[in-house]
């Protein structure tokens, strides 16, 4: 770790940047099973500019909270907390607003919080999925002025948007399409290989084949984007994968996911 820190500092110095040790965080990621064999106290101190950087239980980068045990519980709780904060303020004089305006508020202020960076936590444990879903249910009750004991299913359909799980699959499919067909961005396109040749796609093709699903030796690895993305892509019909453009792919993917609902 100290060698990595020194490499980062050298890169910063070469590019005229200053590494602020006061804001520098360090975390050692490992699964719960791996952590049974060591503790953070066994790790040598990380020293940068003669300053010891303590190991943190979790760090936040660009709004994504990453815990040392590779759990997304802290991040999901943060998402729910921010969404509830918005929902707590929305009911103020909500009676003066039409149902259409309340729906636009929920779609604009709440749903983006639930969608943000959702590709990094695919296949969440059920209790975390339930936490996110309950937040959206609160938003639906706000839109239609429902009591807590009223049946939500008809009103969820009237919202006119897909479920949170369906939206995550939509974003996964869209990102993989850009990586496989357009090869953008490059560092993501390198994650996927064609199943027919075993080579990374070099050019856009009118026929986009299925992708090779890498082997996974752990549950954490199985939930990674490179594996889940390939699986979601392979489940799509050929007519969806072979879209000629991103807008066409979006339309076909939405229609396919809606038909599966």
TrEMBL record:
Residues 196-220 are annotated as: Disordered. PANTHER family: REVERSE TRANSCRIPTASE DOMAIN-CONTAINING PROTEIN. This is Reverse transcriptase domain-containing protein. Residues 200-217 have a biased composition (Polar residues). It comes from the Eukaryota.
